[in-house]
Structures are given as structure tokens and as C-alpha cells.
Amino acid sequence: MHDLHATVEAVFRAESGRIIAGLIRVSRSFDLAEEAMQDAFAAAIVSWDAGGVPDNPAAWITAAARRKLIDYARREQTRRNHEDQLLYEFLCRSSAIDEEMSRPFADDRLSLIFTCCHPAINMEAQVALTLRTLGGLTTSEIARAFLLPEPTLAQRLVRAQRKIQQARIPYQVPDAGSLPERLSAVQSVLYLIFNEGYSASSGDSLVRRELCAEAIRLARTLAELMPENPESMALLALMLLHDSRRDTRSSADGQLVTLEEQDRSLWHQDQIAEGIRLVERALGRRNAGPYQLQAAIAAVHAEARTAGETDWKQIAALYNLLKASQPSAIVSLNHAVAIAMSESLERGLALIDDLGSSGELDSYHLYHAARADLLRRMGRTREALESYSRGLALTSNAVELRYLRRRISELGNQGDPLNVSKQ
Amino acid sequence: MRYMMLIYSQENEEATAEEMGVVAATHKAVMDEARDRGVFRAADPLEASSTATTVRIQDGRMLITDGPFAETNEQLAGYYILDCQDLDEALAWAAKIPTACAGAPGCIEVRPLREFRRREPVNA
């Protein structure tokens, strides 16, 4: 029975997105599709326990869920009052469910991704809906991952699903005119899911790892469904390359370990190899987009066997391109650091000071942390301590706080008169 | 002169079926009377504000937000009722409608009209 549960679980993980996408296409209802799929999985446990697991478990589940949909249609037909227009329309088509469901629609999941990430649904709900529907995560799993009370998340899902039906948000891949913008919205949602798992800020580490794995699975699906889109390919590569370092990013006692200090022998080489392969393919096209550039940067880091071998010149060039296509403070900071590492620390510091001259970044802890790191490398301990302390005062993230305190303590122990570490 | 009557209601109240029936019957009575007197032009209920989407044009780009119009410095200035296939078609239309009646651009709230339920029995 334990094996059976594991099998059912594996089928659910691998196939539920595809199955539910087909059921939603036919029923035009998230609720009915979900109910049908859940009933089908429940039936599978009973049936497979008695008669063994079928050769094609996904086909078995699909067929069972299809029969459930027809059952619901019959059940609803006996009711006189049709409270829901969409359900009514669905009933009228119920005899066609069988035929409709067996038609191969390769792009069911693709349509569903665009529905879940529609800009008329707010971002938080897009994320929840994508994880629930395409990722097959339970409401309580998503709630835990985002540190929200379960009823809040459930309410968010219900509201989004109701809006899809009542406002008639379409279930289709957008036309060529709006595709680039809509696709970039989908990519943002997937990257946000990944980053939520990847950022070491808080929460259950197991749940967070699961979020990363889920985001990678969804990005893989998107890249497979849109093989011609280099940005989708690059997004998958970017996630794989970041995730390859997951075991080295924090120490046993929860301290942040910087890229420079990480034990590279523990990086997952299979993910790196796949990530680099994807980056190379994605970069074969002209006009590299932001994910291609970020993935290329991650690939350069991954290719260096030691931190000292990092090709900072190339990284600086890539950040320069990224600055042009997606300007932001963090990109400019990273560019300045890459210049510091590839040309000279002084030049990097001058760039950072330039960025800071407007005063806009004064309240941004990473600005002070980056500046402090360069000052530390230059041996300007007192100024480094000042900058680390300013960064420290501006963040509440526990992991970052610990990191900045460690730096301050290390510098303090070098015999600096300020000795901030004792605070 | 045609006048538009805008109905503002609370959405968070839990009305009983009976109370809703009274409201519906009263609407019908008002519409019937208006029709009899030859003044009736149109009336429709809207879906809840949670189904609304707001469209704004900024620097030539369409900004879409989930939810109803929520500014106080812009006032209702007119309406369109368009029969569209789905929300995407409606949003594309909304983006074409000019909103700068008095200079500064405003926004368009897109809200589905509630479709009247079909009550006839189903023949499978």
C-alpha cells in the first residue's frame, strides 16, 4: 500500500497539470475539473490496490475523471434551477465531453498558464492559482510556503476562479499582438515562485525547496511548450543554475555563505550542465532578453572551478547589457562589483559612489553592503565597518542581519579601534 | 433628455433569497412602469465589483489592474456597452476608448453585465 501511494503521488506530480488543463478546457469550470480529478485519484487508489497499477496510469485517471464529469452533468441535469449559466452551458454540451476529451490538445497546459497568469488577476492570486492548478500543490502547502493563513489563501483562490468565470477571462494562448507582453507576465510569475523559494529569508526550508523544484518544473513545461522562445529557455536555465548551489548557500548554523565562499564541489553538476546547455542554445538568437543575460551571468559563475577563476570581465560586459535592457539599482550595483573585480577596486568603488550620489540608494541596505565589501577588500577597514553598520540598520532580514554582523565581527577582530562586533 | 440612473449598493451584506426577491420584483415593477410610459431605454445588473478590471493607458502602454476603479479625483463621464466574446476582447476595446474628456487621462473600468439565467428545462 505504501508503494501504491508513492505511485499515485508520482502520477499526480507528473500528470495532474496536464489532466486538469484538459478537464478545465472541457468543463470550463475550475471547480468541477478539480472535483473530477480528485475523485478520479481517490478511485485510482481503491482500484489499483485491487487490480494492480495500469500500464498507463495517466490515461486511466483521465478516463476516470472524464466519467466523473459526465456523472456530474447527469446529476446537475436533474436539478430544475440552473443557478449558474456556465454550468448550464456545460450541461448542454455534456454528451460531447467524451469526444472532446479524447481529442489531443497539446496546448491545454499552455492555455491554462495564460489564464492563471492573466493581468486582470492580481499577482498574488496568479501565483497561488498557478501553483494550485498547474503545480498541483494543495491550498495548505501554498499557504505554508507564503506564510499565510490557509483561509486567506483559499479565499484568494476562490475569488480568482470566480473572476475567471464571471468576467470570462479566456482560456487560450494570446494572439501574436499581445503574446510578448503576456508571456513575460507568465515568466515573471514563475520566477517569483522560484525566488520565493530561493530567498533564504524565512520559513520552512523543506517547503521552500519544494517551491524551487515546482518553479523549475513549471519553467520546464513552459520551455517545452514554447520551444521557439529563448527567454523561456533562459528562465529555466537561470533557475537550474541558481538551484545547483542550493546545498552550499547557508552553513549548518544558518549563516549565509557568499558565492565566493561556497564549496563548489557540492554544486549540482547535472543542473549546471543542463543550465549551460540551455543558455548556449538560448543565446544563439539575437537581442538577448533579461533572462538570457541573467542566465548567462549565472553560467559564467557556474563555469568557474574556483571563485578566483571567475571571468569577471565577461560578467561585467553582461551586466552592462542588462543595465541597458532592464535598468535597476541592483543591476547597477552588480555591474559596479563586476568592474571592481575585473578592472580595479577603485574603479568599482567610484561607480558605486556615483550611483549613491543622488541619495536615492541611501535607504537601500544592499548599496551599503556592496560598498562595504569593496572597502573591506581595499583594506579600508574603518570605512567598511561604517558601511556594514549602515546596511545593518536598514535590513530586518534575519539571514542578512547575521551576515552583516559576521562581517563586522571579522573586521572588528582585526583590531579595529571601533570594535563594533562587541555590540 | 435622457438621464442615467446609477445604482450604488453595499456588497458585503448577506441578503436572504426572500429579500432579494423583493428587490427583483421592485426593479421589474419600475421597469414595467417606465416601459408603459415610453421612457425606458435600458437597465442591467452588474456582476460584483470583484469581477472588475481597470484599464489605464500610460506612455502608450495598456496597464491592467485587478479590481474596480478606486480614485477619487476622477468622475464618471460616460459609458459603453459592448458585446464581446471574452475579457481580452473587452480590454482591447477599453484601451481604444479616450478618457481625457477634460485634459488629463482617466481610466476605464470593465465590468461584466450579469446575464439573465435561462430557466427552461434542459433537454440532453
The number of distinct helices of chain A, counting runs of at least 4 residues, comes to: 20
Strand percentage of chain A lies at under 5%
Task: Give the total of beta strands of chain B.
Answer: 3
Task: Write down the overall geometry of chain B.
Answer: globular
Folded structure, characterized:
- The complex is a heterodimer of chains A (423) and B (124).
- Chain A is an all-alpha fold.
- Chain A has a domain at 1-105.
- In chain A, 69% of the residues lie in helices and 0% in strands.
- Chain A is built from 20 helices and no strands.
- Chain A has helices spanning 2-27, 30-51, 57-77, 85-92, 97-102, 108-116, 123-133, 139-145, 150-166, 179-198, 205-225, 230-243, 269-282, 290-303, 312-325, 329-342, 345-356, 365-377, 381-394, 398-412.
- In chain A, helix 11 runs antiparallel to helix 12.
- Chain A is elongated and about 80 Å long.
- In chain A, 40% of the residues are buried.
- The model of chain A is unreliable at 416-423 (pLDDT under 50).
- Chain B is of the alpha+beta class and 124 residues long.
- Chain B folds into 2 domains: 1-43; 49-110, no CATH class.
- Helices cover 24% and strands 12% of the residues of chain B.
- Chain B contains 2 helices and 3 strands; from the N terminus they run H-E-E-H-E.
- Chain B has a 3-stranded antiparallel beta sheet, with helices on one face.
- The longest helix of chain B is centred in the N-terminal third of the chain and has 20 residues, at 17-36.
- The relative contact order of chain B is 0.17.
- Mean pLDDT of chain B is 86; it is low at 118-124.
- The interface between A and B is medium-sized, with 27 and 25 residues.
